[in-house]
Automatic annotation (TrEMBL):
<dbReference type="InterPro" id="IPR050109">
    <property type="entry name" value="HTH-type_TetR-like_transc_reg"/>
</dbReference>
<dbReference type="InterPro" id="IPR001647">
    <property type="entry name" value="HTH_TetR"/>
</dbReference>
<dbReference type="Pfam" id="PF13305">
    <property type="entry name" value="TetR_C_33"/>
</dbReference>
<feature type="DNA-binding region" description="H-T-H motif">
    <location>
        <begin position="28"/>
        <end position="47"/>
    </location>
</feature>
<keyword id="KW-0805">Transcription regulation</keyword>
<dbReference type="InterPro" id="IPR036271">
    <property type="entry name" value="Tet_transcr_reg_TetR-rel_C_sf"/>
</dbReference>
<dbReference type="InterPro" id="IPR009057">
    <property type="entry name" value="Homeodomain-like_sf"/>
</dbReference>
<dbReference type="Pfam" id="PF00440">
    <property type="entry name" value="TetR_N"/>
</dbReference>
<dbReference type="InterPro" id="IPR025996">
    <property type="entry name" value="MT1864/Rv1816-like_C"/>
</dbReference>
<protein>
    <submittedName>
        <fullName>WHG domain-containing protein</fullName>
    </submittedName>
</protein>
<keyword id="KW-0238">DNA-binding</keyword>
<feature type="domain" description="HTH tetR-type">
    <location>
        <begin position="5"/>
        <end position="65"/>
    </location>
</feature>
<keyword id="KW-0804">Transcription</keyword>
Amino acid sequence: MARAGLSKVKLTSSAAEMADEVGIDNVTISALARRFGVTDASLYKHFKNLRELRVRVALMAGEEMTDRIGTAVAGRSGKDALIAFADAYRRYALDHPGRYAATQMRFEPSEVADSLGLRRSIELTYGMLRAYRLTEPDLTDAARLLRSALHGYIHLELSGGFGHPRDVEASWSRSLDALHVLLRNWPSHQGESS
C-alpha cells in the first residue's frame, strides 16, 4: 500500500541520504521502498526505473555542489577563485561521498538536457578558468584537467589511498598552487591537427 505524501522530490532526497550512508551503488528501488515502508511497485509510480532514480540523485547533488561552488567563488578571480572553487568542490565530496559519486555517472544527453544545475556548473568552471586568459580549445582542455585533478585527489582521499604521513591538507594546498602555476603558464595552442 502506498504511503500518502511521497513525491519524486522527497524520494530523491531520501535516496541521496541513503547514497551518503551506503554508497550510490547500493541505492535501489527496493531499499528505498523499505525505508518508506511501501512496496517497490509504489515507487515505480514515481520513477520508471532505477536509472531514473540515480540520475535524479546525481542531478540534485550536482545542483547542491554547484550552489556551494558558486557561493565560494563569488567576487573572486585567479588563484583566489581556483582555491575557493576547489575547496568547495572537495568539501562537498567529503561531506556527501555517495551524492558526489553519483555526480560522476555518465549521462545520456536526453537525461540532462533540462538541467540548469549542470549548465551553471559548466558556466562557473569556464568562468573561473577564463581569468587565466584561456580560449577554446584550451579552455575545454583546462576544464578537463581541473576536473581530473580534483576528482583523482578526492577519490584517493575518500578511499584511504594516501598512506604517507605527509599531511593531506598540506598536499592539497600544494596541488592547488601547482594547478594555478600550470593554468597561468598554459602552453599555447598552435598547429594542432584534428
